Amino acid sequence: DSVDEGIIVCGYKLKDMMYSELREYLPDCFEMLLIASQGKWEEGLASGVMGLTMPIKAYDLMNTLQMMLQNMEMIKSRTPEQEALIRKAKELLMARNNMTEEEAHRYLQKNSMDSGTNIVETAEMVLSIMNE
């Protein structure tokens, strides 16, 4: 109760519930890092969950956690215009590629991480490419 935000690092199956159930109980200001074999999330991860495959390297774990922390900070500092841009890119991805909102968001996050740009810049790129 004394923590307003954070990252939960967990495995696929906990003693009394699955990771997805735990995610449902967490407030939106918390992110989750799932550490499990790739086969555990082939069908997709729950909203607000990032995944690392086992076995993991310390370097990958630290980079992923750092990226998640930076993302949490950026979310707090986004303007309404930036939020609208991200929403518009997700809507375009959903319409053209038959994605769910979660899939579109994950697509933007992954491409942002892979390209080394922030999610707003990635959304701008998606909009410029797909609106041509």
Q: What is the element string, with H for helices and E for strands?
A: EHEEHHHH
Global shape: globular
**How many H/I helical runs?**
5
Main sheet overview: 3 strands, parallel
Unreliable stretches, pLDDT < 50, 5 or more residues? none
How much helical structure, as a percent, in the residues?
40-55%
Number of strands: 3
* Average pLDDT level: 86
Structural class, from helix and strand content? alpha/beta
The first-to-last residue Cα distance is 48 Å
Beta-strand level of the residues, as a percent range?
A: 5-15%
Write out the strand line-up for the largest beta sheet, numbering strands in chain order.
1-2-3
Write down the Rg. 15 Å
Q: How would you portray this structure in words?
A:
A three-stranded parallel β-sheet has the order 1-2-3, covered by helices on one side. It has 132 residues and is an alpha/beta fold. Helix 4 packs across helix 5 (119-130). 15% of the residues are buried. Helix 1 (19-25) links the parallel strand 1 (6-10) and strand 2. The model has no long low-confidence stretch (mean pLDDT 86). The protein contains five helices and three strands.
Quick take:
With 132 residues, the chain is of the alpha/beta class. Helix content is 55%, strand content 13%.
Quick tags:
132 residues, three-stranded parallel sheet, 55% helix, 13% strand
Q: Topology, please?
A:
Blueprint: E1 6-10, H1 19-25, E2 30-36, E3 49-53, H2 58-77, H3 80-97, H4 101-115, H5 119-130
Parallel strand pairs: 1-2, 2-3
Helix pairs in contact: 3-4, 3-5, 4-5
